Every structure is written in C-alpha cells, then in structure tokens.
Amino acid sequence: MAVYRCKVRGMNLGPMTRGSGSKGIVQGIVTPDDGREVALAQYPGSHGRITSPICCGRDMHRTD
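The structure corresponding to this sequence follows.
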C-alpha cells in the first residue's frame, strides 16, 4: 500500500484502504494537461478516484 509524505513537514499518511468489501484500492498516477503527475487511489472497476492528500497546500508524494 502507498504511503504519502509531506515534503515540507515530513508528515506521513497511509496506507489508505477501502472501508468495506474484499477488494483493495489500486494506486495509480494521472497526468493533467499541465504535465505534473498526481497520485491517486481507485477501487478496481469503479469510476471514482481519490487524488493524493494535500498538506501545506501541496500534493503529498507517494513513498511506497
């Protein structure tokens, strides 16, 4: 499972899991038109996504 880290304060967050059901959360990356990479978590077969957590006004980075 992915662990997210704030590069400013060094705080870690993770791992994220689904609250119910037997399937885990799949980690991935999406690249918006501006070219930056944003980490995300998604339940397999679902259209819903969770983007990376934000700390200090910035996306936290995956450290898995």
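The radius of gyration is 12 Å.
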